[in-house]
Amino acid sequence: MSLIFSRPLFLVGFTAAAAFTLAPSALAEPAPTYEALLEKLDQNPLSIESMAAHEAAEGRALQAHARPNPTISLEAENAYGSGPFNGYDAADTTFSISQPLELWGQRGARIDAAQAQVEVTGIRRDQMRWVLSANLAQAYAEAEAASLRYDLAAQALSLTQADAEAVLALIDKGREAALRGVQAESEVEAARANVDVARANREAAFGRLSALSMLAEPITSIGDDLLNRVPQSITSEPRELPAVKVAKAELDAAERQVNVERLRARPDVTAAFGVRRFEEYRAEALAFGVSVTLPLFDRNTGAISAARAEQRAAEARLTSQEWAAQAERRAAQSSLDASISRTAAADAGEVAAEEAYRLARIGFDAGRISQLELRSSRAALIAAGNNAVDARLARALAEIALARLVGRAPFVETF
After folding, report:
1. Which domain of life is it from (predicted)?
2. pLDDT digits (tens, 9 = 90+) for 342-394
3. In 3-state terms, what secondary structure has residue 221?
4. Which of 121, 274, 371, 399 could form a disulfide with 287 if both were Cys (CB 3.0 to 4.6 A apart)?
5. Yes or no: is domain 69-101+266-299 CATH 2.20.200?
6. pLDDT surpassing 50 at residue 322
7. Contact, 346 vs 415, CB < 8 A?
8. Which parts of 220-370 fold into alpha helices (H)?
């Protein structure tokens, strides 16, 4: 049983007294469900950016399959000179076509490197999906918590007002000093200020959720959704962590790029074939040949060194990610387990605080306990309610952190 999540009978009276304070929130349309907002994540600019980056990599991979274009040339020699070469009658005209030849496996290496980049961007696209879903879940859970804290503050105000009225009644009967009434009124004003602060925090949390969800209309209320969900305590996650998958894909891409740069140092070979026309003899003959570049000045050593350095950096990142990811996964799992236990303890503490306040109120009305004891019981009840909200929020954040780490949407099995 909980002050917020299931109200006991003794709270019915002051819940009615708080109706005016809660009316704007209670009458408003609630926010879309978490699952409904998840379905719209593809419209998020960051999601669109990651998908576009993947499509760009796919386009470059497609382009990597293309072979170099041939070159067509038309040349004329021994024409429009002097002496016997006056005019065009002694000219030699050559029409030829030349084709660069990608030898040494250069084309295959280029295709492999481009395909490796497709793998990297594909994993990053999926990783962005989990990050966005985690951000959404966190904003949703924090908005829920802010709404519950506002309800708690309003209920605390009602409790304080009810206790103040009881104190004033005792003062009228001469059973309490007038000073107690001043103290009670001061407590009411402090509780009213807490309501204003909680309202501001709630509106800020609603604004963040509205902006993150790109909703046309701002959120004005939210129902209990994520905070009441109890995530399963899973001792092991079979899947490979996204951060490690990205690091492995980047290392593979770096290794393939080293091969590309190494093969670029090989000579470029071009084959040519054509027909030559001899105007003087009214005859034709074939012309063909092969040209090869000499790697005297540019052996691509700088690019090879850079590619190998990037490979070493990728290897270091992979090693770092493997160690860090395992540690973070164990920490996230431990945090989730602890938060589940904390929530159970907070609920039990709240039940005890509710009963303690109920008995304290009965004792105060009967004149058996002091106002100080009643105030202490009320403060303990309010603190227990806030502690229950904090425990549920911590449990939700632990589930969100674990889901982001292992690569899945929080609180859902498939997404």
Report:
1. Bacteria
2. 989 998 998 999 899 888 888 877 778 777 788 888 888 999 999 999 999 99
3. coil
4. 274
5. yes
6. yes
7. no
8. 242-264, 301-365
How far is CA 245 from each of CA 322, 325, 358, 367, rounded to the nearest angstrom? Answer: 10, 11, 56, 68
CA distances from 166 to 114, 157, 231, 268 (A): 78, 14, 43, 97
Q: What is the mean pLDDT of the chain?
A: 85
Identify any residues that bridge with 58 across adjacent strands, giving them in sequence order.
none
Whether the domain at 9-67+112-265+303-406 and the domain at 69-101+266-299 fall into the same CATH topology? no
pLDDT tens for 244-258 read 999 999 999 999 999
CB 132 within 8 A of CB 315: no
Instruction: Single out the residue of 252, 298, 288, 310 nearest to residue 122, CA to CA.
Output: 252
Q: Give me the pLDDT at residue 415, please.
A: 61
Mean pLDDT for 192-217 is 91
Q: Find the largest Cα–Cα distance for the chain.
A: 139
Q: What pLDDT, on a 0 to 100 scale, did the predictor assign at position 259?
A: 94
What CATH fold (topology level) applies to the domain 9-67+112-265+303-406?
Outer membrane efflux proteins (OEP) (1.20.1600)
CA atoms within 13 A on the CB side of 27: 6
CA 224 to chain CA centroid, nearest Å? 23
Please give the pLDDT value at position 176: 65
Average pLDDT rounded to a whole number, residues 320-345: 89
H/E stretch holding 170 reads helix 106-172
